[in-house]
Every structure is written in C-alpha cells, then in structure tokens.
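Record type: ASSEMBLY
Status: queued
Input:
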Amino acid sequence: MARYILKRLWHTVYVAVGISIISFFFIHLSGDPVMLMLPPDASKAEVEALREQLGFNDPLVVQYLRFAGHALRGDLGVSLVHRTPALDLILERLPASLELAGAAMLFALAAAVPLGILAAVRRGSLFDLGSMLAALFGLSMPHFWLGIMLVLLFSVHLGWFPTSGRGSFSQLVLPALALGLSLLAMFARLTRSVMLEVLGQDYVRTARAKGLRERIVIGKHALKNALIPLVTVAGMQFGFLIGGTVIIETVFAWPGVGRLVVQAIFSRDYPLVQAAVLVLAVIFVLINLLVDLLYVFLDPQISYGGER
Amino acid sequence: MIAAANRLSGRGDALRLWGETLRALGRSPGAVIGGVLLFAILGTSLAFPGFTDADPLSQDLLARLSPPFWQEGGSLAHPLGTDNLGRDVLVRILYGGRVSLFVGFAAVLVACGAGILLGLLSGYYGGRIDSLIMRVADVFMAYPFMLLTISVIAVLGNSIFNLILVLGLSDWVTYARTVRGSVLSIKEKEFVTAARSVGTRDPVILRRHIFPNVLSPVLVLGTVRIANIIIWESGLSFLGMGVPPPMPTWGRMLAEGRVYITDAWWLVTLPGLAIMLTILAINLLGDGLRDALDPRLRNIPR
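Status: finished
Output:
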C-alpha cells in the first residue's frame, strides 16, 4: 500500500515537472513582454535595462530553473498587468471555478446514476431508448451554446435567472446546468453500459439465485462494482472541468480562473498564464491521485503493488 | 518461406473484419441515420458553392437583422434571416460548416498520424522508448487541454494551419495509448513471430503485419474525437481564437450573435443547431462503429 502511494506520488511529481517545462517554453516563445511593460517611446537602453533586471537575457534553461526554484517555494512570479503575485490572483479566483465545476459535477452525477441504472435494468424499454437518445443529444451540444440557449429561455424570455455574475444561488444555476448537461449525458451512458456488463456477471446471477430482492442485487452487488469506472471517469472529468470552464466563465461573466487566464493571454501576461496552467494541471494530477487511492477502498481486488 | 509467413500475416483477418464491420453498421439504425445525416451535411456544405454564387460576406444593408422566413418580417430572400450587417445566415452557416468539418478532419488526421506512429514504436520496441513516450503521454494527459490550445494559439497566432496543428498535436495521447495496447497483444501472435523468424525487418513487420490490425480501434476513437475537436474548434472561435475573420465559423457566428440575443434569437440559435446536428450525426455513426468493432461490447447478452 505504501509502495503504491509512493509510486503514485512519484508519478505526480514528474508530471508536474513535465507540465512546468512545457508551459514555460511555450509561453516564452510568444514575444517580448518588456515591450508591453514600457511606454512605446522607451529608449533602447531602457528596454535593455528592464530585460536585464527581469532576467530575460539569461539562457532559457537558467530562466526555467529560476522559475522552478521559486515555484517550489510557492512563488509563481508576479503578474505583469496586475503587479501582484500570480499565485494570489489565482487562489483568489480558484474558489469560483471550483464552485462552478463542483455544482456541475454534483448535478450531473445525481441525475445520471439513477437514469443509467434504470435504463440498464429496463434494457430495450421505451425509457431506455428515450433516455439514451436524450443523452446522445446532450453529448452533441457544445456547452457554451447550451449556456446561451439557457440564457435566451430562462433569462431573456422568462426572467427566472440572472444572465451573469456570481454571488447568489440563482446566478449559479444556469452556468452549472450548461456545464453539467454533457457530463450528465456521458455519465448516464457510462452507468448504463457498466451496469449492463455487471448485471451479466456470475455473482449477480448467484445473488439472484439466492433469492435476494432485485433492489438489493442492483444496489449492493451490481452498483458497487459499476462504481469503479464511474469514479475514474468522474475524477478525470472533474480535473478537465476546472481547466475547461474557460468558455462558460466567459459566457456568464463568472469570475473564475478561466476568465483570468483568457484575459491574461490577451494581455500577454506570461507569468500569470504560466502560473495558472501550472496550478490547474497540478490540481488535475492531484485529483487523479485521489481517484487512484479511492480504488483501493472501492475494490479490494486491485493489487496496489503494481507489477511488482 | 517468406510468402508463407506473409500468408499468415493476418491481413486477411483485417479485411474480413472490415467487411463484417460494414455489414454490422448497416444493421444498426442509429449508424445508418448518422451516416446519412453526416453525408447530407458534408454534401450540402461542400457542394453548396457550386450551385449558387451566394457570398457569406455580402451585406444586404436594407435587410439587417431580418428574421427567418416563417416569422413576420422575414422573406425567402434570406431563408434563415440575416445578421447585424445584413449577411445571410444560411449561407454563412453552410460556409462555416466547411471550415469546421475541414479543421475537424484535418486535426484528427494529425492526431491519428502522430498517435499511431508513437503507439506503434512504444508498443513494438518496449523498453526505454516505451517508457519515454508513455511518460510524455502522462504529462500531455495532465495538461489542461483547453488552456494548452488557447495559450499556444495565442502564441502562434490564429491561422487555420496553426489551429489544425495545435488541435491535432494536443490529442495524440489517446491514440498512442490505444495503439500501444493493441500492439502489445498483436506482437505475440504467431504471424508476427513467423515473419520475424524468417528475417523480416522491423519496419516491414510494423507496416504490413501490425499496422492493419490496430486500425479498427483507432477508427472508433477517431469518430469520437472528431466530434470533440469540432466542438473545441467552435469554442476557440467563440473566444475569438479560431479561424481568423472574415471567414465565417459556427463559433464566431455565436459570439457575434450573442450581442443581439434579445432582438435576434436566430443568430444565437441556428449556428449552434448546425453544430449539434453535425456532432449528433458523428456520434450516432461512432456508436454504431464501436458496437460493430468492439467485440467486448458485442458479446453483452441481449
């Protein structure tokens, strides 16, 4: 067990290093931030002085190592535009993104699991066909378009929910629905197919043969095993969600990290983009680590010794 | 001797699998509907400019923001209405479709190509090459995709070529992992051992004996991913980082129309419907393909 966790932690570390290298080099290809920081009539000497001062004249490897060293101490650089530490800006916006992603995920799971189970149990019924067709439509909609459609219907025409902003529960509803619907569709399909697979297994047949009531067979024997792939996918999707709320945050003027990053990209605020990408990627990796550890509790059969 | 080994190559198996797949696809109503719908969308988008000289950029300034024909004030001159500059929405949707579909297909080809190559190398040679490629894959998997594409596009500028390259290269990992998995099982098969025992060189084995046998999972994956990439492309366009203006794209039409959401519902609704129908067609086809090609799912008792 300890060995498994250590292995997973090592994985987390090298992925984080890889990510920091990629984002560092990508962003440094993008042009000269010094020109943006100085007035257009700045002299060559002034430009050169600032470059030297900010360390942009050092070799890239040196610049990266400096960045990595600072990052380990929690210093992810200073935003060129806001003139405050990048990490502070991100952490300030992070709760909003987490709130949105969490609400979307909760909504999706709460609706998808019962739907998927019912569809699997009543395979081939009208309910099964209908809900799976609906799921297919849900999967086919870009979430930002769904967001616009929700605004059109519920804000513009019915006036039930505000069009944008964050603060009250009613402002959370539309963006969370928009973000969660395609997840709902994905999870419902997954739950259904996993349940179908599990329901055909011997231990389910045995449980039924023992005369256990169908509710217990499905709830206890089948669902527990169906949960494993669901947890994996939900975990991965949650990671993606946090980095993927960019567009929906733009549609609903939601003050999260995604919008911060888009603004930073347009203003060529390198350190901020770099820091945000790093933070989001590390969160993603940590979520995956948590999911992997969760397996151990869900499925005693998984040997956490690895290949050994 | 070499001929004998080649006869055992498994190419016949692969061919037979393709035949079976097509038949299985024909039996699935979803796949047929999806296929026909996709064909129709592709057909109208591609053939459309051949039949009419309608221009997606021409402005009819007297008919700005006119609604679709079935609404009061609409006319058949602009069946799906016009935007704020009096440009025809239908014509723009059809032209936008060409861009979206082209970017989608091209990006999937790039991703497939890179993924298959790296997956083959990784699975066939194993060892150091394998662990290097798979570690890089881990890093790519963890990188927040949307941010990766957005930041790279912001750096390189938003040409159609960059868009294809970035979308394609950020999506190779899934293909590489899938191909690697298939290669691991195929390279132990008799026809590979036989080919190797008569001295066939590695590149030949990879090309003639292994490659044809890893294609079917890649095909399933490709259909799923192309839907994702088209949605992605529309998202980038929506943020103003997609194919540069003045070429119309579905995503940018939505972004531009959003300003007029209270006055002109068609501007924010119709381009999105076009995306949805396209993705729906691809998903239907993809589901059918998966059912036809994935024996594991095929065997679920009915």
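Annotation: The CA atoms of residues 69 and 75 of chain A lie 9 Å apart.
Annotation: Residues 303-308 of chain A have pLDDT under 50 and may be disordered.
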